[in-house]
Each structure stands twice: as C-alpha cells, then as structure tokens.
Specification:
Number of helices of chain A: 11
Keywords (chain A): Chloroplast, Plastid
Number of helices of chain B: 8
Structural class of chain B: alpha/beta
Largest interface: A-B, 29 and 30 residues
Domain SUF system FeS cluster assembly SufBD core (chain A): 212-454
Largest sheet of chain A: 11 strands, mixed
Protein name (chain A): Fe-S cluster assembly protein SufB
CATH topology of chain B: Rossmann fold
Distance between the termini of chain A: 24 Å
Radius of gyration of chain B: 18 Å
Oligomer: heterodimer
Number of domains of chain B: 1
CATH architecture of chain B: 3-Layer(aba) Sandwich
Number of strands of chain A: 23
Strand content of chain A: 25-35%
Family (chain A): Belongs to the iron-sulfur cluster assembly SufBD family.
CATH superfamily of chain B: P-loop containing nucleotide triphosphate hydrolases
CATH class of chain B: Alpha Beta
Shape of chain B: globular
Helix content of chain B: 25-40%
Strand content of chain B: 25-35%
Largest sheet of chain B: 6 strands, mixed
InterPro entries (chain A): Fe-S_cluster_assembly_SufBD, SUF_FeS_clus_asmbl_SufB, SUF_FeS_clus_asmbl_SufBD_core, SUF_FeS_clus_asmbl_SufBD_sf, SufBD_N
Distance between the termini of chain B: 32 Å
Strand order of the largest sheet of chain B: 6-9-10-3-11-12
Number of domains of chain A: 1
Helix content of chain A: 10-25%
Chain lengths: 483, 249
C-alpha cells in the first residue's frame, strides 16, 4: 500500500530480534590466533590424523597463500584479517567420551535451548543428529541404530581415524582443495564436520542431520561434510546452523561434498540461520561456502534444498556435476535478506552425461536495505546430448530500499539440449495484502501467508520436520513486535 | 446498521467523495448507481478502510460504532464484507486454507469454537453449490488462473462462508454471462435476510431484476444526488444519466 503506515508496519514486521543470539560460557581448548605451517601441524596433531591428511592440509595451505580472495560477487564487505582468526576452539573435555551421557551438561543445555535434543530418549521424529560446536563434533545420536543397516554417520574427525581408506578415496574429489580461495583455506584448517556413508542397496532408515553452532567470538568455523551414497542407496540429510550475536564478524567457510553412484539418491536440505548482524548491519557471520555434488553414476540424483535466512554476507552456490547418463540435479532455494544483509547465492548445473536433467527453483525475498542476488550457471557440455534444464527465479521485494538481482549464465555446447529460464520480480502485492485484510486476517498473518505462498514450490521439497521449521523461521523473521 | 454522515474522502490529494450521506437499516438492499468516476468504488474502499484513501471529514457508524479509524481487518471482523470488482490472484495460497483461516477468525470473534479442516469441509460443502463453485476450487490457489466469472463466484462463496452483517458488492455483475448472473443472484438472495444489509454497486438494471433493491441511489461527483425505489433504476435505464441530471438541475 502506498501510504507510509503500511511501509512502517512492514518494516516492523521484518525486524524481529534474533532468538539464538545467546552465548554459552564454557571452558575451551584454543590455540593462538593466526595461520602458518605450525598451526596446521598443531590442528592435525590435536586431531591425531594419519600423515596423508597433514600432507593434504599443507598442500592446500601452500596453494591458499598464493590465491586471491574472489571479488566478482555482488557483495561488499571488509575482508577478514586471516591472521586474527583463531583456527581451533573446542570445548574442554577431561577424557575421551564414550557416550553422549558424558558430554558436558552445559553443552547439552545449549543445544536444548536451540531446540535440538541430543538425548536419544527424547527421540525426535526419526532424525539422527551430529552436533558441531565451534571446531568439533560433540556427539552423534543413533550411531548404533544406523550401524545395523550398515550406514556410517559420524564426525569427519572420527571418520579420518576409523575409515581412512574411504576418506583417502573420496575427500577432495568433488571439490579439489585448489578450487577457490575459501576451499583452499578450508582444506588447510578444517576441524570437523559430518561424514555419511550409505552402502549399496540401503535406504537410510533415519533422516541424518548436522547442527552447527558457532560460539567463540574470535574463532572461525571451517567444517567439512562428505556424503557417499553407493549404488541404489538413498539418503536424506539436513543441516541447521545458528550463532551468538557479536558486534564483530565471524567467518564460516565450509565445504560439502556429495557423491552419488549408480541409481543413488541424495537429498541435502539446509536451514541456515546464522546471526545476520543488527539493524545497522553491525556484526553477523560471513558465510563463504562451497557445496558441490557429483552424480557419478547413471540415473543418480542429487537434490539441494536451502532456506537461507541468516548471515551478514552469503556467498554460496550448491552445485551438481551430472556425469552419469540420465542423472538428475535439483536446486530449490529460498533466500530471505533483511536490514543490511547481502546474499549472492545460486547454483551451477554442469551437464556432462547424456540425457541429464536439472531443475532450478529460486525464490529471493528482500526486506530492509538488503541486497539479494541469484547467480546461476547452466552448462551443457558437448557430450551431454538430449539434456534439459528448467530454471525459475522469482524475487519479491518487501521494502523500497532493498535490491534484487538475477545473474543467469548459460552455455550450451551441443545442439540437442534444451534450456528454459524464467524470472520475475515483484513488490509485495499491496492489493493482495488488502484482500486478505478485508477477510479479517491481520497484517502479520496476511504477510506470512503471502510469503509462504511465494515459497511454496520450495517448501514442498523440504522433509516434513524441516518444512515446518522453515515456515516457522520465516514467520519469525517476518513477525511483528508482538508474540 | 450503517450510517454515513457528510463523508469526504480523497486519494493522492484528489477529493473523490464530497459530502456523502447514507443510512442503511437491517434487512435493506441498497443499489448504488452512477457514472464512471462518480465515486462508487471509492465509497466501497473507504468503507472497508483501504489505506490508499484518506477520510478528510465526516463519520462512518457501523452498528453505532465509529469505524473511521479502524484497520481493514478490524472492520472485517465486525462483519463488513467487500466483494471486489477485480479480485486479486494470490499464488501459493489455497482457497481452502485462506477461507478456513478467515472463517476461524470470524468464529473467534463471535466467541465460537474454531474448526479443523474436516469440520470446515462440512460447512463449506453446501455453500459451494449455492455459489455455483466446483469443489476442486478449494485446492486451487486464490483466484489464480480463474476466469472472470469464476473470480466473481468465488467472491460470493466467500461472502456465504464468512456470513457478514453488511456486504458490499462492487460490480459483481460486470462481465458475467446471463447464466452466471442467475447463479450469483441466487447466492446473494440466499445470503440476504432480515438481519443483514446489502449494498449493490452496479451499472446495470439487469442485476436488479434478480436481486430486488429497496432503495436506489444515484451518485454523481462524489455525492448521492437522487434516491428512489426500484423504479428509479428503470427511469435511469430509459433516460440515462443525462435525463436524471437535467431533472435535478
């Protein structure tokens, strides 16, 4: 509505305070700030890694020192001083933990406060959880139940020690350490993350989930996730993240690698709610993440679904390399930015094999003074005969000061493939809002109906538990001052 | 039910309503006719609190409450309903979900129990036939891809489900073929009873053949310039606005 009152009420609606901004006071085992060969050796040593890992890290570090931070994204931020970041911070533990019961109650409580129960008795609708606090995984639930069907789900540190041959075979094969500035950094200093291995012909009986929490103000979080789905297997994986409110910016530079063999299917869902800074744009997480899936086998499928609501700066392009014939890649995304948040996010669909298919549905919602960009590449290689892509990018503006952009890149190198791209940009419908109000629905509920209607195509792709969480999260971000 | 006193309203600093008076009692059907730009639709928007219009002078009493400063949703909760001339499309929100939410808000306001989707289906089922709406409408998104006639019937369905005290129908008959006009009129007549009031904004006599007005008002330049019974609509049909305006002068 054209009047000032509506503009103000919309502004109020999107300015709901961040609920997860608390800080947990806990004794930590940290190392000195800064980065050099010795720090990397120390991390590797603390994690009791085999020598191939140390070599991998050192090689990555060497490469990183000669790389430049990328500046092509439509974002502006003051670059981090990489020597003033702490690269290892872990809650102190007195001895090696044998079960979750031995985890510091303070930590269990912190996760309870976030709505994540690590208590297996309070089993949460068929979800097994790996909880990562700053640099380390503090526990994984339902390990035994999963082991019965041969599924391995543990922290990547455990996996490096217990399954070094799997790690050596797959780590860095989808995203080489020298892929970009942030992957080189991550490869050198990553401290934890999750590892999943689904054996041949197994449909994973539980949803797998990792919950990431940044707590320390001066440490960065560099986690690494690796998921391998063998022939004919199937897994659904969820990822959630939050961080305390600080005036300074924290760096999060993660890597996620997925590998799907013949007929395998991986569904990877993210609800990202890192602290996004205050209403003036102070503080918040810098989220520089590289996520890539390899559909190595024929008929395999990788599906990314993301709901991005947090972070001061987001730089993230979950991608699919479709190598296997008839393999399929999907990317469903909702990105909500408010205040001074900046998001440059999208996907890459690289069609290599014959008859490969991809589908991109991206919904951007911009409020406040935020900047929200979709950036996507669809590429058909010469041998990707008869392949198809469909992309749809919709942007919704909630304020007059926000900005939405779409940067689609298309490259077709054969004559039998087909690419479709649709894009729309609209302002939140003033007449739509009035229509709902006229039926007695209040402003808050009306806006949340309009937003969830706008996002419906993406929400239906989320696993049930997450769809509810995502809907709740968006309403929370858009809710007014009451309630 | 409704009393409008010397109402002056404007949009974008342009005065549209210039001192309008109107009293509507329970059980009455009032037709408002007038030339394009005379302020008919503006009146419906001002009564329902559309934020693009500001009330510069005068009062609006609904059941003895001054509603001038109430928000659109508060007015709707009191029982004022507007059937839109151009109902908007809302992607991703199903008719069923939307109607059930609106219905439950009415229930809450009336201090009655809220209903679940199964109970709601039993409530809405008979209303579907009344307004000539197919059951598969419920799963479709609000007005998305609806034809002009379907949109108008959907408005009547909403009116029947929400059961307001005062319904304002803004050119509901425009763009309807004769069969659709009959169905819609049938829905309106079923809704209307001695405890309700109706304002029909229309350009054409033909709707009034099916829904009999107790009063017909002619609007011109932001005011009601002539009021009569149903026969005034016939006079208008024969003489046009020219004739009526000359009479008055």
């Amino acid at each position: 509505m054209s009047t000032k009152t509506t503009e103000t009420s919309l502004e109020n609606l999107v300015n709901k305070p961040y609920k997860y901004g608390f800080r947990t006071k806990i004794e930590t085992d940290t190392i000195e700030k800064g980065l050099n060969d010795d720090v990397i050796r120390l991390i590797s040593q603390k994690k009791m890694e085999p020598s191939f890992m140390l070599n991998f890290r050192l090689k990555a570090f060497q490469k990183w020192q000669n790389m430049k931070e990328p500046d092509w994204a439509y974002i502006e931020y003051s670059k981090a001083n990489y020597q003033s970041i702490r690269y290892y911070s872990a809650p102190k533990k007195k001895k090696k933990l044998n079960s979750l019961d031995e985890v510091d109650p303070e930590l269990i409580q912190a996760f309870e406060k976030l709505g994540i129960s690590l208590n297996e008795q309070k089993k949460l609708s068929n979800v097994a959880i790996d909880a990562v606090f700053d640099s380390v995984s503090i526990g994984t639930t339902f390990k035994e139940e999963l082991a019965k069907s041969g599924v391995i789900f543990c922290s990547i540190s455990d996996a490096i020690q217990t399954y070094p041959e799997l790690i050596q075979t797959y780590l860095g094969t989808v995203i080489p350490y020298n892929d970009n500035f942030f992957t080189a950094l991550n490869s050198a200093v990553f401290t934890d993350g999750s590892f999943c291995y689904i054996p041949k012909n197994v449909k994973c009986p539980l949803e797998l989930s990792t919950y990431f929490r940044i707590n320390d103000e001066e440490s960065g979080q560099f986690e690494r996730t690796l998921i391998i789905a063998e022939e004919n297997s199937n897994v659904s994986y969820l990822e959630g993240c939050t961080a305390p409110k600080y005036d300074s910016n924290q760096l999060h530079a993660a890597i996620v690698e997925l590998i799907a063999l013949d007929n395998a299917m991986i569904k990877y869902s993210t609800v990202q709610n890192w602290y996004s800074g205050d209403e003036k744009g102070k503080g918040g997480i810098y989220n520089f993440v590289t996520k890539r899936g390899l559909c190595a086998g024929k008929n395999s499928k990788i599906s990314w679904t993301q709901v991005e609501t947090g972070s001061a700066v987001t730089w993230k392009y979950p991608s699919c390399i479709l190598v296997g014939d008839s393999s399929k890649g999907e990317f469903y995304s909702v990105a909500l930015t408010n205040n001074y948040q900046q998001a440059d996010t999208g996907t890459k669909m690289l069609h290599v094999g014959k008859k490969t298919r991809s589908r991109i549905i991206s919904k951007g919602i911009s409020a406040g003074h935020s900047r929200n960009s979709y950036r996507g590449l669809v590429r058909m290689y010469p041998k990707a005969l008869n392949s198809r892509n469909y992309s749809q990018c919709d942007s919704l503006l909630i304020s007059n000061n926000s900005c939405a952009s779409t940067f689609p890149y298309i490259k077709v190198e054969n004559s039998s493939s087909l690419i479709e791209h649709e894009a729309t940009t609209s302002k939140i419908g003033e007449e739509q809002l009035f229509y709902l109000l006229q039926r007695g629905i209040d402003v808050e509920q009306a806006i949340s109906l309009l937003i969830s209607g706008f996002c419906r195509d993406v929400f239906t792709e989320l696993p049930m538990e997450f769809a509810l969480e995502a809907d709740r999260l968006l309403s929370l971000k858009l809710e007014g001052t009451v309630g | 039910m409704l009393e409008i006193k010397n109402l002056k309203a404007s949009t974008d600093d342009k005065e549209i309503l210039k001192g309008l008076n109107l009293i509507i009692n329970k059980g009455e059907v009032h037709a408002i006719m007038g030339t394009n730009g005379s302020g008919k639709s503006t009146l419906s928007k001002v009564l329902t609190g559309h934020p693009a219009y500001s009330v510069d002078d005068g009062e609006i009493f609904f059941e003895n409450t001054n509603i001038k400063d109430l928000s659109p949703d508060e007015r709707a909760q009191l029982g004022i309903f507007l059937a839109f001339q151009y109902p908007v499309e809302i992607p991703g929100v199903s008719n069923e979900e939307f109607l059930r939410i609106a219905y439950n808000i009415r229930q809450k306001y009336k201090k009655l129990e809220e209903v679940n989707p199964i109970q709601f289906f039993d409530i809405i089922k008979p209303k579907l036939d009344l307004s000539g709406v197919n059951v598969e409408f419920l799963n479709r998104n609000i007005n998305e891809g609806f034809s002009g006639g379907e949109k108008k019937r959907n408005e009547i369905l909403q009116m029947c489900v929400l059961d307001p005290k005062l319904a304002i129908l803004d050119e509901t008959d425009s763009g309807l073929d004769i069969d659709a006009l009959k169905t819609v009129s049938n829905g309106i007549n079923n809704f209307m009873n001695k405890d309700k009031s109706l304002i029909l904004i229309t350009h054409y006599q033909r709707l009034l053949d099916y829904v009999k007005p107790d009063f017909v008002h002619i609007m011109y330049n932001g005011k009601i310039i002539k009021t009569g019974d149903a026969s005034l609509a016939f006079t208008l049909e024969n003489e046009g606005y020219e004739g009526i305006l000359t009479d008055i002068k």
